[in-house]
Amino acid sequence: MCMYKSDFQPIMKRYALALKIILLMAGVMFIVRSFVLPYSIEQIASLLLGILLMIIYIYLLMIIPSAIELDNEGITIKRVLGKKSIPYSVIKEVFAYNGVQEDVRYFGSNGFLGYIGIMGSTPYGKYYSYVKNPQQQVFVLTQNKNYLLSCENRDIFIKELSNKLSK
């Protein structure tokens, strides 16, 4: 079992915690503000904006990867809340990729705390992106869905995964 840490690029690593705290505080402040205001359209707007910011925060916590593990059954993307598994039996190909910045974003974050969500590219179609560091991208083509991951030591990860696929 091999564990590969999924971390932000160095410049973003410094600001990731601060951005998460700011997003959380903004959501809480809008919700609190909605109870302080006299009943009006501003109160409703403030409450809805606060709830929206909290939903975005929880969504980011649910899908931002913390590590990628190669276990006996497949790739496991470990997240703060839950995990995502990709069995070896469905993986067709794995390779280094460097194009997430140029790809189309259908739903998700296009650089804010990573490239997370549903993206699309011309050669590979729609894929699910779990990229925190765009300099360490790994594309995983499967029979059903495609995934773009990032982890430290991308080349070692690809070599280990390729060895497991060839067995």
From TrEMBL:
**What residue stretches are annotated with the Bacterial Pleckstrin homology domain?**
68-164
> Which UniProt keywords are listed?
Membrane, Transmembrane, Transmembrane helix
| Domain of life the protein comes from | Bacteria
Q: Give me the segments passing through the membrane.
A: 21-41, 47-68
Query: What InterPro entries would the database entry show?
Result: Bacterial_PH-related
Write the protein's name.
Answer: Bacterial Pleckstrin homology domain-containing protein
Source organism (scientific name)? Phocaeicola plebeius
Organism lineage reads as: Bacteria, Pseudomonadati, Bacteroidota, Bacteroidia, Bacteroidales
